[in-house]
Amino acid sequence: MSAPAAVEIQSLSYAYHDGTQALHDVTLSVRPGESVGLIGPNGAGKSTLLLHLNGSLGQADGLRVRIQGLPVDRRHLRDIRRRVGLVFQDPEDQLFSPTVFEDVAFGPLNLGFTGAELERRVRRALAAVEIPRELEGRLAHHLSYGEKRRIAIATVLAMDVEMLALDEPTGNLDPASRRGLIDLLLSLPLTKLIATHDLELALEVCRRVVLLDGGRVAADGPAAEILADEALMRAHRLEVPLSLRLARPHTRSRPRPPARPRRAD
Amino acid sequence: MEHSYLDELAGRSSPVHGIEARLKAAGAFVLIVSAVLLPAEGIWPFAAYLALLGGLLALARLPLAPVLRRLAGFAPFIVTAAVLLPFTRPGDGTVSASLRLGGWELRLYRAGLLAAKAVVLKSLISASSVVLLVSTTPFSGLLRALQRLGFPRLLLTIIAFLYRYLFLLQGEFLRLTRAARSRNWEAGSFRARLAAAGGIVGSLFLRTYDRGERVYTAMLARGYDGCFRTLSEPPLRPGAAAALGLFLALVLGVLIAALLGARGPRP
Fold first, then answer.
1. Total domains in the fold of chain B
2. Residues B36-58, mean pLDDT to the nearest whole number
3. For position A44, which CATH number holds?
4. Helices (H) and strands (E) in chain B, counts
5. What ipTM was estimated for this complex?
6. How many beta carbons lie within 10 A of that of residue A34, not counting itself?
7. Which domain holds residue B199?
8. Which of A35, A113, A169, B15 has a Cα at 20 to 30 A from B74?
9. Is the pLDDT of residue B102 over 80?
10. Which has the higher per-residue pLDDT, B221 or B239?
């Protein structure tokens, strides 16, 4: 028998308390080791979908979402959360402890690790995201945004997760921090689901993208094909990444910019 | 963003900064309780405690200005007590001095003066102990120390969250008011300004509420189950325990001598 899918979602629907239908009949399967970009306009349901992966939402309906074959329901919650590392959009939400070390230790502590093993996990996770040891005792408030993002990822790496679910990982980062984060994501040999508006990131890190709009899957396929489909992208308030447009000058969609008016002699 | 933070002096290095947080917290606690228990009469026990604190302060090599500024934070309470007590506590009724103001007579009672002296000195010792503790101990270490000393876990958790998110909240408030000012908030009528202030406070409340939800979700996502687990602490070094023992012997020795009414020279 082949290994179970990393993520298996069967016609999942979800409405918030106020009646907003955030997800509508979503079916999706992710193979182990795959990197999948979740793209779509604002309010498409990307974050809502990510919150379902570790049972933050929709535990009652757990049978519709399976992680490595395990249904995401109350009974398996602890196990699921060890497997799925959810990295939130705002690192300020994820880093709530007085020091960086305590924040990274929070997950492993809850899994029952203590002493030397706990310390080993924290150090390894911080090393993986290239955070120097001097920062361990700092309050998250005094770190740069890029450092906060990396530490937010370390907080789940320390739990030895098998899958990363990242919400807008490159938002608010300066170009150098963004580059560092993309390189970090490329270096982590985990299954990844990345919800993002950064389509260049999706193109670079993900072989496959899933386009969500209005809570439905509008497209699912190879990143290079979907992101290059100008009609599809435009129909869902997205655009073809500039890198793809420049790579194919003969299909340039925009007219050349008009020549500059000549200076009068 | 502009804000001073509580433990900005705690990152320095000195013999006092190097002492373990648990010992400092325990020491400060004992010193404060002993100071409160000192009899109001007599001056040398107070002087002994202040000398002890002065010595530690010198050993901690803290810059004087921020330390005095922090002490000044306690001043309103101390000054209020010091000014009111001599007039309001008659004790046995002995009047030390009286002041005639028109038809009024202000009486300065002896017992009140004594109480005022004791309150000022006890507050000064307590405030200095706290300032010294906070200025030489990182906040996270202090929280862990208090937990080890048996403070209620829930209370400490709340303080930890407050410490973590207070600055963020302050920043959010700053941005909201800045956005309001950028649209000429001050130029509006009083009513309009008040309405805008209401909006700012309201949205700050909503944002904080939302943030609380998100933080809680993030905690659950990492396996939080309602029980706060904390890092274990290494056992105390024998040298450190001996230092605490010496400190406690000094503090309690002074207290016992003072309570026994000894008026001899300092031990």
1. 2
2. 91
3. 3.40.50.300
4. 10, 2
5. 0.77
6. 17
7. 152-232
8. B15
9. no
10. B221
